[in-house]
Amino acid sequence: MQSSNGRLFGAGDGPGSSADNQEEQGVTSGDVRHEDPWHDTLTAGWGEADGTGMPAPAVPHPRAEGGRETAEARTRDVYLAVQRSEAFQEVRSRYRRFVVPGVAAFLCWYVGYVVTATAAPGLMARPVIGAVNVGMLAGLGQFLSTFLLTWAYARHARLRRDRAALDLRWDTQELTRGVQGGTS
Question: Whose CA is closest to 79, among 162, 165, 184, 173?
């Protein structure tokens, strides 16, 4: 592979080669890793001075920490327990009780409009007031029903689900904080 100046990457031909840079920094060939040339190491916190003039040590891999996997497993267990809880099931059932009939009614209304416009063009062309016909009113009704359904959904969420979901979220965060040892 060639760089923008025509030299091969890693070929060792010139002062900018990775092999020369690694030898100058005291890196042995066993420690050589192929880095992403577009990755800015300073944004990741590597290579910055640690206050003593020396580069900061590399950030350890998160999986290498001692109890991290068990904390993740306990956190997963908290979320599974919350999902099985009565409060979560109630919030989900309130959601389904509104959304399933709402979507079904809206799809029936939409399909009815399309089928009627296709199968009965004479009915849709029937004038109502001046140049306004049934098809135009039904098309505007599609927009109106979309806005009404959106308003009804937001109202239902605000009145029936948001408080319970917020309480459930707060409890879940408290439980996961306790599992992780007080850190967030």
Answer: 173
Q: Which of the two residues, 167 and 65, has the higher pLDDT score?
A: 167
Element (H, E) at 137: helix 134-156
Judged on CB neighbours under 10 Å (0-12, 13-18, 19+), 16 is exposed
CB 142 within 8 A of CB 53: no
Instruction: Give pTM, 2 decimals.
Output: 0.55
| Rounded Cα gap, residues 48 and 38, in angstroms | 18
Q: What is the pLDDT of residue 58?
A: 47
How many Cβ atoms from other residues are within 10 Å of residue 1's Cβ?
7
CB 139 within 8 Å of CB 84:
no
The 3 state secondary structure assigned to 40-102 is: CCCCCCCCCECCCCCECCCCCCHHHCCCHHHHHHHHHHHHHHHHHCHHHHHHHHHHHHHHHHH
Q: How confident is the model over 39-75, as pLDDT tens digits?
A: 455 454 444 555 565 554 444 444 445 555 677 778 8
